Amino acid sequence: MSKHAQNLGNWRYAVNVQADALPARVEQAAKLSISRIGEHIKAESNAIAPLREGTMIESSRVEPIEDGLTVRVSYNTVYSRYQHNVTTLHHPNGRQAL
Fold first, then answer.
1. Which of helix, strand or coil describes residue 77?
2. Helix-strand-coil percent breakdown of the chain, rounded to 5?
3. Fewer beta carbons under 10 A from the terminal one: N or C of the chain?
4. More confidently predicted of 58 and 94
């Protein structure tokens, strides 16, 4: 029996670790996780974003930055910055400045 295998009653398992591939796999998993977090933040933000015609929500994006271990969640409309900075604006249905 190899040093990486054990017999547990009727069950047997083996562990094969490819150490050379671990850093790349960890980085890939981190990038995927960060991208998913960005998508979650975008969805949460869109749920409270001001809504008249949906233009601002439709412009929302999640973009990886540089090495992919950072993402930017952004809106690309003429008035997005104003909506973000002026927190005294009043929006119906629980919507708010971003």
1. coil
2. 40, 20, 40
3. N
4. 58
AA identity, residue 49: A
Structural contact between residues 49 and 64, judged by C-beta atoms closer than 8 angstroms = no
- pLDDT per residue over 45-77, tens digit each? 888 887 777 888 899 999 999 888 999 999 988
Burial 54-74 (b: 16+ CB within 10 A, else e): eebbeebebeeeeeeeebebe
Categorise residue 87: left if φ over 0, alpha if ψ from -120 to 50, beta otherwise: alpha
Secondary structure (3-state) at 7: strand
